[in-house]
Design a protein that fits this description.
Oligomer: single chain
Structural class: mainly alpha
Distance between the termini: 41 Å
Strand content: under 5%
Radius of gyration: 21 Å
Number of strands: 0
Largest sheet: none
């Protein structure tokens, strides 16, 4: 991706335009924070509805899950194209200077479509809300760009980056992780010239979540202190396992989405129905563990609640099937849950190591194995769990995981999906142009 250069543009802007730019960043940060809080609250209500009404009837998900996935995928495909999936690839694609579909990918209308993940969660989908919040944040910032009264592409790119960063910062209640995410995943390099205004946007977005939701560890307080060689060995082992499994997940995910994009709408909806049935089956076998975002299950694992080892693999499959079905929904929080489950399994191999150490390493390792963004992954976990003493071990786990994941999936997860998204949009545009030319000839 072409590097984004903000320094010259920002310093050459008239002072009125520069002032508007700062105000838009800060105002946008507050709006993104509000959108993230709304998404979080509605996701919790969706989870409550699922567990208190849908799962009250044990066999109901065999109907509700596949039917809801098909309906949501159809609505997304027909009316909110670009809203399917995580949302991070759309933001990356919109930042690509060669992308001609910027307005389409991060419009407010497309952002509205991301909220379709809520009914999906209500009826059993295994997806996360953080990726969609990133796309919503970028869309809000992009919509506010008209207030700057400048057509400079670099200023608009800065707004999109800030919106995505504020989105993940507010979603995880982790503002520093939002900055790191923008640098590592969106900008692809450290742009210190814009960190001051971007930091303001992320901070304000996260402050809304701070004062609304509080500032407690997201998954409960973890006990972490590596005191022996076994602890470091467990970190290395967790990095290898998480990286390999994350790489396999990414490779299969990308291949499946590429295949789904090539088949007809009717066939893809039929596949979505089958995927929904399989998710319902996994939910039945796991007594509902695989449904939803996974926040509750992660909290219970960190609190040393034991889940059967097979549940982690059920969750991997459920998230894979839900996310590739064409509905809006991300892989962040489900990946965290899977990583926590893998850490719980490996913790039994190292009885002289605090289980929380291996669980946190598992979260970072699998998360990084999927996304191949090591700095973002360990920054999110450290900031969410308030475990700065684990910084070095988690960095080690993340780097090992990325190395082994890259052996299986050469192209980073979000970049590969962004490239696919650009190619798909170009194909559909070319198809529409050919149809228009054919009508003119006739």
């Amino acid at each position: 991706m072409q590097k984004i250069k903000i320094k010259s543009a920002y310093h050459l802007l008239p002072w009125r335009t520069a002032l508007r730019l700062n105000i838009v960043f800060w105002l946008g940060g507050i709006c993104v924070g509000i959108a993230a809080v709304v998404m979080t609250a509605l996701a919790k209500l969706s989870d409550h509805f699922l567990h208190n009404y849908v799962l009250h009837y044990r066999y109901l998900p065999f109907i509700s899950t596949p039917v809801s996935l098909v309906i949501i995928a159809l609505i997304t495909r027909k009316f909110f194209r670009g809203a399917e999936g995580s949302g991070v690839p759309q933001v990356i694609a919109a930042l690509n200077p060669h992308c001609r579909y910027q307005k389409h990918l991060i419009s407010l209308w497309t952002a509205l479509g991301k909220y379709l993940l809520l009914p999906a969660l209500m009826f059993g989908a295994s997806v996360g809300r953080e990726g969609p919040t990133i796309q919503v944040g970028a869309a809000i910032m992009f919509a506010l760009a008209s207030l700057i009264k400048t057509n400079r592409a670099d200023c608009r790119s800065g707004l999109i980056m800030a919106g995505g960063a504020a989105g993940i910062g507010a979603a995880f209640n982790a503002p520093l992780a939002g900055i790191v995410f923008a640098i590592e995943c969106l900008a692809k390099r450290f742009e210190h010239h814009i960190t001051d205004i971007m930091l303001g946007a992320v901070a304000l977005g996260s402050m809304v979540g701070y004062f609304t939701l509080g500032h407690q560890p997201v998954f409960g307080k973890a006990i972490v202190d590596i005191t022996n060689l076994q602890g470091w060995l467990s970190i290395v082992m967790m990095g290898i396992i998480g990286g390999l499994l994350g790489g396999v997940f990414s490779y299969c995910f990308i291949a499946t989405r590429r295949w789904m994009n090539r088949i007809s709408l009717r066939k893809s909806l039929l596949i979505t129905f089958v995927f929904g049935l399989l998710v319902a089956l996994l939910g039945y076998l796991s007594h509902g563990f695989v449904f939803g975002t996974g926040y509750q299950q992660t909290s219970m694992i960190i609190a040393n609640h034991e889940y059967p080892a097979v549940y982690s693999f059920y969750k991997i499959l459920a998230n894979f099937l839900s996310s590739t079905s064409g509905i809006p929904g991300g892989i962040f929080s489900p990946s965290i849950t899977v990583g926590a489950g893998l850490g719980q399994i490996v913790s039994h191999w190292f009885p002289h190591v605090e289980p929380d150490i291996i669980v946190l390493a598992g979260i970072v390792a699998f998360f990084c194995g999927v996304t191949q963004t090591p700095i973002t992954c360990f920054a999110i976990v450290i900031e969410m769990e308030h475990v700065s003493s684990m910084a070095v071990p988690l960095i080690v786990a993340a780097l090992i995981a990325k190395f082994f994941a890259s052996l299986i999936c050469k192209r980073p997860f979000f970049d590969a999906l962004a490239d696919m998204l650009i190619a798909e949009n170009e194909y559909h545009t070319a198809k529409q142009v050919k149809k228009a030319d054919f009508k003119k000839i006739r």
